[in-house]
Fold:
Amino acid sequence: MLLGIGPEGPVAGRRVAITGVGVVSCCGVGTEALWSGLNGMPPSGERRVPGFDPEQWLSSKETRQLDRFAQFSVAVADMALADAGTLDADPGRSAVIMGTGVGGLGTLETQIEVFVEKGARRVSPRLVPMMMSNAGAAAVSIRLGWHGPSETIITACAAGAHSIGHAARLVASGRCDVALGGAAEAGMTPVGMAAFANMTALSTSGNSRPFDIRRDGFVITEGAGALVLEAWDHAVARGARIYGELAGSASTADAHHITAPIPGGSGAAACMTLAMEDAGVSADQIGHINAHGTSTPLNDKAEADAITKVFGASAPPVTSTKGITGHGLGASGAIEAVAVVLSIQHALIPPTSGYEQPDPDIHLDVVAPTARPWDPAPVLSNSFGFGGHNGCLVISPA
Amino acid sequence: MSDDETFDKFKECAVEVLQVPADKVTREARFAEDLDADSLDLVELVMALEESFDVSVEETELEGIETIGQAFDLISAKL
Structure:
């Protein structure tokens, strides 16, 4: 990961180890649930997180005072830290970067109902601290007593990738020895669902079919993911298990349209290229791409064009885990970063569920219908958000 | 409604908002020290009490309220 340009040229930062992962998804709570879910059948019906009990992590009072997205943030942070083992990190050099797309939308909706039905005097004094998009990062840093940067990046569906990239750079630069990077989303609220449906973003058939000719929109989900990112030498010194390296990240903008990707995917292509440069790897070293692959007609075509533009005809195998998980909006990049770590750990690329009939305009090696064994190599993980925000991560085996 | 019944109703609100065991809600209990309640908790509790007892409490009336007993007296004086 590069820090910038010095008098002698590009300046490389410290290596960043991934030493812990945590996730909640529609496959369930934890990494095992995600991994078995990714290698199974898609859930039927609405893709909410099953069996999430916030009181596994929070007191009943804390639960009452946190929106569901912030509860997810605390849960995945706690899981990732438990997974990482004893960090022995200076709290002043430890960071929390937790993104989201819409923050506490559910709390806002509930309180608007209260306002309409009962008047201004009944609106909860907790509304602001519950709905604010930084409530997840705040809850985690308060819980951990970490005094380093605690921030929230809000770039719609690219928030997870951007948060992890920013967290990693805090470690690479030497500002922090440990950073939690991730994102959470709980936007499956009545108004949220209606809004996504009315903008014709959601699949009317209820099927997530990334890159398939029949794809007709995304299937909305909720959840969160987090990685413990740690200075490589710090991780080695404490004998930590290292899953892999957060080797590079990049961010670009389409500067085109508030919701539609730029045709041809030039913004996405630039982002992928910059992320590989950041990681110091060439296109032929990338062994797999975890695509954004939302199952919308426009995204999947633009992303496929961008991949072809960057990699030519020899693009590495591509999978979209959204075939199973659906689209977790701001959390998606974080959930997928966890999926990439698991793909490396298991030396297996999970299939793109729902991909059965190729689109003749998409020239990708889509992994389907079954998982594909591979020799783990650097992985590119793509995330693209409404607003034209692009975020790419490069995650390499240890 | 007897004083005991009124206090029970008051206690229900406190248990719900403050998420504390009912036996901790005594007249002597102090909001901050004994019930771990911050200023926002107090505002929430007063809103719940206003709703439950159909009374109105002005912000200025809350000055100096530190115990359950003081808050209870404030509400019951309005009934």
In short: Chain A has a mean pLDDT of 97. Residues 16-397 of chain A form a domain with the Peroxisomal Thiolase; Chain A, domain 1 fold (CATH 3.40.47.10). The interface with chain B takes residues 59-61, 64, 118, 121-122, 124-126, 129 of chain A (CB under 8 Å).
